[in-house]
Design goal:
Elements: H1 4-24, H2 50-60, H3 150-187, E1 199-208, E2 213-220, H4 225-238, E3 252-261
Antiparallel strand pairs: 1-2, 1-3
Helix pairs in contact: 1-2, 3-4
């Protein structure tokens, strides 16, 4: 259907061309009355020039069929070419980080104490100010002892009493001994034979609780006999001494006394 349209158009064009050629050439003067009035009109055709005939023939010729495109030549199967895989692209080089100076080793931190657990919050809000806790009762100086500890408590009390009594006797003995020493010092005289001499004489004196001198001995001499004899004479002449305090209950007491002689 598509190819018939050009053919019809070509035929129409050829027919129009023939009519144009006939109209161009005028009939001769004698031709108009050649047939006579009684006969039929005649038209004499003359041969067309050669170029006009060629043009008409070209229009009358059927159109050439459209050329079919040449089929593609089959590609001969050749030997498969092995394509070597391309090496992977190199990874981009990372910029070297600026090297910071290595910090000195720091000592290990102390172990951290575990955080204290927070006390649970009371769901009931306080209705008022909390009452102040009453002050603790003063502790008694002496705590009462139960029935099962009576024996041990009694022993402890006796020990405390004994210690106090011993301390009292020691204090009384020191005070009494000071009185005896003062009495002997008042009787001390440097003999004429030992004038200008110096020395210290230590005596052991046994004095009864009534103040009587029961005996005196030389514990350490001065190296000068006159000074030693003068010390013994001073102790004997100072007796009797004052009576011992009531806390001293022994029959007699040994007192150590050192007398110093100076120029």
């Amino acid at each position: 259907m598509i190819r018939a349209a050009p053919i019809v158009a070509s035929l129409a064009g050829a027919l129009a061309l023939h009519l144009a050629v006939l109209a161009r050439f005028d009939l001769p003067q004698g031709a108009s009355g050649a047939g006579g009035q009684a006969g039929a009109d005649r038209v004499e055709l003359e041969a067309a020039p050669g170029d006009i005939a060629a043009l008409v023939a070209a229009w009358d010729a059927p159109p050439k069929p459209a050329e079919q495109p040449a089929a593609p030549r089959p590609v001969a199967a050749g030997r498969a070419v092995t394509v070597a895989p391309l090496p992977p692209a190199p990874a981009p080089l990372a910029r070297p980080a600026t090297m910071a100076p290595t910090p000195p080793d720091l000592p290990a931190p102390p172990p951290e104490s575990p955080p204290e657990a927070a006390p649970p919050k009371s769901e009931t809000p306080p209705t008022g100010a909390p009452e102040a806790a009453p002050p603790p009762a003063p502790r008694p100086a002496l705590r009462a002892v139960g029935a099962g500890q009576g024996a041990s408590a009694g022993d402890s009390g006796a020990a405390v009493a004994a210690t106090a009594a011993k301390a009292a006797r020691q204090s009384a003995l020191l005070a009494w001994g000071a009185e005896v020493r003062a009495a002997v010092e008042r009787r001390k005289r440097t003999p004429a034979a030992a004038l200008g001499a110096e020395g210290a004489v230590t005596l052991i004196m046994e004095v009864g609780r009534d103040g009587a001198l029961r005996g005196v001995t030389l514990s350490a001499g001065s190296g000068i006999a006159a000074l030693d004899d003068a010390a013994l004479a001073a102790a004997r002449s100072a007796a009797p001494f004052g009576a011992a305090p009531a806390t001293l209950t022994d029959p007699f007491y040994a007192l150590r006394l050192t007398l110093r002689f100076q120029r």
